[in-house]
Amino acid sequence: MYQWFLAKRYLFSRFITFAALVVVAASVSLLIVIVSIMEGFRSELQARIRGTSSDLKVESTNYIGLRDPDRVHRIVEGVQGVVETAPYVDTIVFSRPDDSFFDSGDLEHRFLRVLDLTPELEVRELRKYISAVDLPGIAALLPRDPRELFSTQWVESRLLKIRERQGGPPPRVTPKPVLVGQEALRRDGLSLGTIIRLTAYSPATQAPKTGDFIVAGYFKTGLYEVDSMTILMERGAAREFLGLVLDDGRETASGLRVDVEPELRSEEGLEKLRAQVEAALHRAGVSFVRTLTWRNERSTLLSAVRVEKAIMSVILGVIILFGGLMMFIILTLLVVEKTRDLGVMQSLGATPAGVSGIFFRIAAALCASGLVIGTLHGVGFALAVNTVQRWITLLTGYEVFPQNVYYIDRIPVRFHAWDLFWIIVPTIIVSVLSSSIPAIRAARKDPVVALRYE
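User: That's the sequence. What structure does it adopt?
Assistant: Structure tokens below.
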């Protein structure tokens, strides 16, 4: 009982003891805020990458070299757990608006993604990305049905009239529609009705092919690279433009996108299913293909974000060590200052364990209080961080989180149980270690030596 009484007296005897409390609370709070925001960014990035890809991808190792994708489609869909597959073509094209081939700086490379609309609408988020467009004055004009955007009726009834009102020359032949990311309008001025000339290599002839296409609409995925550099084309138009039908009548593609059952979408489930798909393709004699999960496809980017989070946590973890060092210094000073009190207690029968327990209790009180205050403040601040940044912008005019830089309309925050575990447990360990040496030193005090000069 006397241990808690003396621990309380010693704790409140010097104001400096609360400096350790402040450091512990501040370090815990700062770690929770930073780690939760980093985890939020990682989760947001992961979700957006997943939305623009598929669970699995079977792709050819050659340029648009998956021959007879319908046969591969039947093989892959025979694997248990596979829900839907769709052939796709991804390639690089050269793009220039209208007929400005000889204008310097107009010829730029873009990523062409060919869509098979039926499976895209069933299992992926194309409709969501089209509905997410927030361009003032344009979003309201666009139909939300992707089939209508890629239809000839939309081109002839609206887009060509818009082009005529803008003073553009009428095309000789009605161009096929394509969709571009909304950043292409902001960066390159590709407005509705703009005709772009695309040039790409045909997988059949390995010769360049050129075609004119009209900007029929926009999409927004939330990934700046995709929204500024990607062009979406319907599969029927791509057959003619790229020459996807070979001389033997078979079609070629870059690969197949594969969607799986929800319960198999964990990292372990996808890896297991990937191995089954590879085995099925090998048994069927399909060669020169590889199977990737969506995490494999963007592993470098996801690993970079994960490593950045770990490095940030280690750097900020030094603050916890600093709090432990302050606790060690303060407890050491208390042992020196209370030498006479320790001698009196030991002469009255206090055991070494009882004396050391006083200082362990002081450390426990500082650690527990710091953890509680820091956790409450960190969680509360993280939950309110978007409100805080809006108030800062409102009062100072300084935009803390510019959307055009991060391409996210809010600061993402996500709490993970393991993150909190790795913040709280090291804090407790550092507190125990920092109080051990002063407590052991106090327990070893000789009462005769301690009272010699008192």
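Residues 54-297 form one domain.
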